[in-house]
Amino acid sequence: MTTTESAPPPPLNDVDIVHLAQRKQPSNSHQQTNVSLPPFLLSPHSHKHLLSYLHSRAASPSPSSAVCEYVTSLLSLISLSPETPAVYSLLSSLLSSYTQIFPSLPHDSNSFKTINFFNTLLVHIPLEDLKLVIDSVASDLSAVVTVDDAQLFDLLPQCFELIRNGEEKGGDYVNSVVDKILDSQWSKGFLLKMVPIAKEISFLDKVRGKEFLEKVFMGIKNVDLMDLPSLVYQLLVLASKGFNKREIIEGIVWFFGSESCSKMASTVRQVEGTVLLHVNFAVKQDPSLGKEVMGLVKSDLGAFNHFTVAVLLSVSRVRRFSESSMVILKTALLTAYRDYKFTKECKWIQDDIKEEYLKSVKVIEKSMLRAVNESNYGREHMVPSILQFGFILLESAEEVNCKALGNSNGLLSIEELGIQILKTLFEVHDMARNETIEQIKFRILSLKPELSRPIIRLLCHLIQCYPYPMLEHVPRLKELLDYFTFMDGKIASYLVSALLPLIRFSRDLRDYAILVLRKAVFRREDTVRVAATNSIIELILAEKQPKGDGLFSVQDSSSQASCSQQADIPCSMGGDLFQEMSALLQRCLYQQAKVKEVLYQGLVKLVLADPAIGGLVFDFLLPHFLQFFKEGLDVQLGVNTCVLSENGKVIIQEPLDSLLSCVSWILLLQTHDKTDQLSDSIGACFGFSLSQENEDVRNRSTEVFSSALLKIRKFLRNANLEDILGHTHNDSAAAHEEKRKCCALILSGVVEVVLNTITMDLEKATDEKKVELENEIIQFVDRHDSFAKEASTSRQSNAGKRTNLRATPNDTTDNLDSSNTKLIQEHTPFLATSSIYQLLLIALKLHSTESSNIEATSQNHSQSSSSKASTCFKIVSFALNASLHHVKSSVAMGNEDLVKKLIYGEINMLGPPLLRLTLLLKPGSNVATSQKKKESKAKKDAEERKEHLHLAFLCLKEMIAVSLCGSRLTRLLENLLLVPELKHADLHDECAQASEIDDQDIRNKELFIRKYLKPLLTDLMKLSAFRTVEILCDIVLMIGHKLPSKWTNPHGAWAIHMCKTNNTTNSGIAKSMIRLAINLSSSPTDLLVVQDMLKELLKFIGSNNSNSSQVSEYLVINQSTASAIASCLLQITDTVIIDMDWSTKKLKTASQVAHKTIHQSQNGECCSGFAFEENVYSRVKAVVELLSSFVLMSLNDSQAEHFLRLTARFYKNLAQISKLRIAPKGHKQLLPSLYFQKLVELTCKELTVPLYNFVAEMQQAQQESGSGKGMINKIKRENKCIPELIFQIEDYEKHLIRLSKATKMNLLKHAKRSTSRDFKILDPTTTNVAGQEDGPNNGGHGNDNDNETCSDSKDDNNGGNGSDKVLSHEEVESETDAAAPTVKRMKRSGIVHDSDEDC
To answer: Fewer Cβ close by (within 10 Å): the C or N end of the chain?
Structure first.
């Protein structure tokens, strides 16, 4: 275009331009883009007219379409020749005008189309004009309300790129615009627009990126609900392009998991399902996002909420992250439980920290349950993951024992949580039910028995809560029953018990279960037979329970047992199932003794559930009973026929004592009225009435059993021992002896059955009758003692597989271990709690009578007095042994077991008579001091009393332990506090203080300790009752651990006083008292006490100790007890180091979280000074002082090895703590706290330096001790400990060197170079020559240390002058190589060096 035009081109109006654009539009892709334009458009003078047309159209009634039509037409003409100067000048003016009129235009698809057209031509606009456009667009963000209002911002990304690439300082201008936008207020519409725009802006740095995300997540709260899924999707797209991935994931999780979002839960959860689908899709497209999700939960449990759980469950549907997501969820839950369990039991952790961990567990539990409860809101893709996770929790139930935690503070156990998750899934999602039942079936059959129990409990819950839906899955349950005979016996029985509620609804399932049990009874394996017998009893019991809805009318399914015996299955017509199964139960009477015991116990359960069935049970048992009981001139009790000899082994074929126990209980429970009612009901069921003859037979069976028991009772009381035991023929001497022991064992059980019957009668008898019954009890106790002596070695025989109640006090164990539990489960006590209670009362009565009659007894009646004393001791011994066995066996019985309620009842009623008997048996009571007998007899009686006292306290200990497990301790203590206490000088004041405590639970514990335990322990310490004192200490500890530290401290101070004032040479007593003193003292007093004791211990086993006549401040510490106490204190130190292991892991987690927030802080020390961290440092400092005392002792071999191992673990923790003080890359290095510096100094001076000497002395002692076989094994063990210890010390010092370099502080000025090596050969000649060559440089350890590690000083006095100089890593390595030139040492040095690179 020239400037010498003669006349202006003819003008074109806006309509002409639209028509022209339509004609000029290319028809195909091969047409040239540069097409000649009308002269009017090429003239600069026409720009004004062209822009006026724009404004006129903007003022029209429908400006949107009019402006869009005109502008797009004009832009299409311009795009035909965009390189012409006049054209791009017109383009700049047009864009500027359009941005000015844009606020007045409707913001719709037309405007969006126009702006996109402008976006394609921005490259032809001058940069200065672009800046004007940017300034115009970004000038007033307040006008942007909706997303359409921000359409012009679509121009910014390309404008920014053009300016950044076109100008040298274009980046500064662009950054200033971005900062202006970030500093302004964003509306929700602008926020929604900026997120998709941000993915096109590639030049944002991390700081501006974080500011941008902060604006987004601060404004996301105001975004409309329906806009959330698209916004999250755009954020995920942004993250997939590498834009602050972790921050975006954190922000999304924070928003949907925050409390503000939870308040809108009813609406937000409707879109959360869509959001989770977006997350799932994004992870599939970009796996790195999945890694960020995993890393977020791993690094910070504080980010754990219900949406985090949902995200992990959603991501787990991606095959790549399926396993890792489940592992992270499981680990997070288990870690929370373990941490809370640890903090709850740890006394040095502050209460506020314990509350934090409790809150953390609750948050995780609620998050998981909420994620599952909301799984029906568009989250069906998560159902398989939820199902998998629920079963993972059930399989993990044994990893953390949280049952005790679940009973308090409103927590669930892991098992309960897993069951709750799967129950919710079963209820909400129909599609998950088939898979749930299939998984239950598969896991019961494939898992170990201990792991399959939670799965069966889940099945039981599903059947109880959802019986109707479970009826649809009966075929699968029948398939599961087919494997009954191949399962573990207890699991098989447990499975049938779980199915019982459903069996009551399904006749088909019931008939199939009966067929399976019929097969199982005929199996060869004992465990299968026992399980089948148990299951048959449970099946009959289930029928006895009232039916809730009467829904026993479910039609039989077509699926029946594929067995030839199918036609023989009895079809019940509403009659009694016991009669239907009686033939099968009859088979059990001809099997092993275990099966019979289960059957007899089951029959008692049946009568308990329905006493009217007692007559039928007697009819069932009578023929079998008459095989062993013969009536004639003399009663014949066929005990010999109960024992058989097979293949040289003697076995008990018939547990006659269990049979008689069953009969006696049924006689007590049976009522004749109900029996009559039962007869009528049975006759009506079958359409006929029982004849008088049948009724008489039934009554006669009851009379036979009642009469037989009375005759057996009389026979056992009057017959001599040989007549009762009987004689065996045609047996060898050994077999005869074994049979005799087995018979005695059976008869002792029979006597217990008789005693149980007599004591039941004693409760209802008159005073005259009571005297007669008490004398009879005494006779039977004496008879029991005779049988017990005969069977005393029966547990070593093949027949002695049942628990022997007749154990002596020496045979009893202080702890109820697993083997004892197994024995107890096999044999239920024959004596009820009420019977043992009566026996204890009789023992108390006899003891009191003997006490009052001793002084009145003359010398002529000394023999009679001795006999009475012997009888009293037998009663006491029997009652205490029965009590101990009774309390221990109560743990093994289920809480809902009918027999447990019958036999055990309220077991706490045994407490008061036990405590009264304990007070009477205590040496120094009236009974003990008033006896004036021969010296030998008095000594024997005193020993017996000590044994009985020990047994009585053992019973109390077990009873308290059982009450603690069942949360029944408060009730037990209330009963015990009713017993009159001992008379002590300061007892009244102490009890008065405890009585003022408001909390009843604490008050009862305090009163019991002060009124009974402490006075008893004080008295027994003076009387040297060693075994009893140990039990008392255990009882005090058990109760003391349940008290707050406020109340345990006084008891700890009392125990410390006892250690100082009581001199004993018994190692067990010394260790018990020391444990009591330390465990009852709160932190930090407990470790201060240990330090004081170690200082006193050095007087006796110090390395330089030669005087064994020294006296300790703690009298329990002396030459006789020193070694045992050293081992005890080593164990206590070991437990403290175990606490350090946990606290170090928590410090690491806290440090990772803290570095995110404090690395930009100017005062980093203030920010990172956690109270927990200082608490840990103080604990570590105390451990250093403890170990520094051990290192000065002359420990024996096992103690020294233990010390080296725990010291190596301690240095490993120190290395981790030091490593945590080093800031990660990109973070500001903080100065170590003064507390940490003092800890490092103390460790180097008090522990590390003496430790090297300790190791050297150990190795020297090895060389001087010879080379025997024992010494060789000892050296081999220590050769594993010492290198590990040296490595951990060097690793710790390596991290100190790195920290010193980073902080410019000399932390190793007190360190000593490592010279002790188990593999270093020291040649005396070489050593002397080296010493002469070194001269003054090696004058002492302290100077050598300062010179070679941290400073240039010549001695210790000026060692601090070089504190500003930090030893480099290379210098340390050169010194290390010089000190140990061997190949092995070089390799170890290389390992240390390589680990430095990983940090």
So the answer is: C
